[in-house]
Amino acid sequence: MQLVNDDFLGSFEGIADDKAPGFGVEVVRQVFAGMGQDASFEFFPARRAWMMVVRGERDGMLATLRTEGQRFCSFPDEPLMRDRWVLFVRTADIGKLKFSSLDDLIGHTVAVRRPIPGVSEQPTMSPELWNFLREHKNMIPTNDTDSSLRMLAASRVDYAVTSLVYGMSEITKLRLSGKIEPILSRGVAEQNVYVCFTKARVSRALIDAFSIALKQFKQTEKFHAIYRKYFPNGAPSDFPQ
Fold first, then answer.
1. Which of 30, 39, 56, 207 is a Cys-bridge partner for 200, taking CB atoms 3.0 to 4.6 Å apart?
2. Residue 130 belongs to what H/E stretch?
3. Which CATH class is domain 2-81+191-230?
């Protein structure tokens, strides 16, 4: 089984690091091992990773949403994890910039990772927010979350949308701690994250077997040990298993 991953889960997916290859990598590897199935993982930029899946060159994507790649991928019933997307602002703007309603965004620019052409129609946010930003022409598309956060830190945009856990980890990696903070009073989206499998290469029977095995593995101590490894403080309440 050959799976690819983009920057969806950020630094939690340092695939080249044998000791800490990432939460998703470790969980999926263990699940496939229990099924007697070999699995390999590769990292590519989002556009290239998805094109490899679309062209049937790989067996699937390690972590994505059901809103992406539905024409090319099949999804197991059991999610890999659950994640929450929020708006980030500069620390200096906390209290000045709010998100109690969509109207708070009028007149302000918002950095959003652009969709992958031919794969997804919208990024990881509600259709309501996506349409609102397009209608008011204040969406600033970026190639990845790092770009969004860098633009925010440089005062080139007023808000940035990203995963809460990924955003916090990238802020640390980019040495932006104390400069950027999330708005936690209202989220942008909270959705399940799935492994997706290429329809042209993976049978429905194998996907269903994987789903059952994943659900069972998530009840084991081995799974909880992996979880604690990447989320030693139990993970924030905004990032439920």
1. 56
2. helix 127-136
3. alpha beta
Q: CATH 3.40.190.10: which residues of the chain?
A: 2-81+191-230, 84-189
The residues pairing with 181 across neighbouring beta strands, listed in sequence order, are 89
Q: What is the pLDDT along the chain (241 residues), one digit of tens a residue?
A: 999 987 665 544 455 556 667 788 999 999 999 999 999 999 888 788 888 998 999 999 998 888 777 888 999 999 998 888 899 999 999 999 999 999 999 999 999 988 766 566 556 677 889 899 999 999 999 988 889 999 999 999 999 998 887 787 778 778 998 999 999 999 888 888 899 999 999 999 999 999 999 999 999 999 999 888 876 644 444 444 4
Q: Is 128 exposed, middle or buried (0-12, 13-18, 19+ CB in 10 A)?
A: exposed
Beta-bridged to residue 89, according to DSSP, are: 181
In CATH terms, 84-189 corresponds, of 3.40.190.10, 1.10.357.20, 3.90.226.10, 3.40.50.800, to: 3.40.190.10
pTM (two decimals) = 0.75
Query: Who's near 89: CB < 8 A, 6+ residues apart?
Result: 97, 152, 158, 159, 160, 180, 181, 183
Helix axis angle, 23-34 relative to 221-230, nearest 10°? 160
Q: What's the rounded Cα separation, in Å, for the pair 90 and 121?
A: 28
**The length of the chain, given as a count of residues:** 241
Q: Smallest Cα–Cα separation from 166: which of 5, 7, 26, 14? A: 7
The token pair at 155 is 């005062």
**Residue pointed to by tokens 């969806």:** 8
User: Which residue matches tokens 């190639």?
Assistant: 143
Beta strands in 178-235 (DSSP E): 180-183, 189-198
